[in-house]
Specification:
Length: 154
């Protein structure tokens, strides 16, 4: 079937209608299900996020900080976005130890978040204003206790 020939014979409105039907644009339900299938999971609600952010601000509990890092922070986020999620501004660290190895570049900016109630801090690296070298799974339950993961991060 020659669709272009039909398009030339039909008026513009009929041609647009014909192209719409032939191209499958009427399958919006299927398309939305496909988009949902490939979109990142929304593992928690905005209420959960606010509850953990407030709890971390009040008690400095590491579990609340790690929940935010595991569920709301992602690679590529800007510094302001990360600060907003965590509810605090990170403290910029000098380059010293960070510029000497690993996947870091001399121009990277390192920010410290914390300390938490146990005295530990989290260091996040930003390159050109975007979070890099970040893996959410590092902050899931059990990840901090896994010696193999700890060795891989060094």
């Amino acid at each position: 079937m020659n669709y272009l020939g039909r398009l030339a014979r039909c008026g513009i409105a009929r041609g647009i209608l014909l192209l719409t039907v032939v191209s499958g644009c009427e399958s919006s339900g299927w398309n939305s299900r496909m988009l949902e299938a490939f979109s990142p999971e929304k593992s928690a609600s905005a209420e959960d996020e606010e509850r953990h952010r407030t709890a971390y601000a009040q008690s400095r509990n590491r579990d609340d900080l790690y929940w935010l890092l595991a569920n709301r922070v992602d690679a590529g986020m800007g510094l302001r976005e990360v600060n907003g999620v965590l509810g605090e501004e990170g403290t910029r660290e000098t380059h010293g130890q960070w510029a000497r190895g690993g996947d870091f570049q001399v121009s990277d900016d390192v920010y410290r978040y914390g300390p938490d109630s146990t005295g530990q801090s989290v260091y996040l690296v930003f390159r050109e204003g975007r979070l890099v070298n970040y893996d959410r799974s590092d902050f899931t339950k059990g990840a901090a206790l896994d010696p193999a993961r700890a060795a891989a991060r060094r």
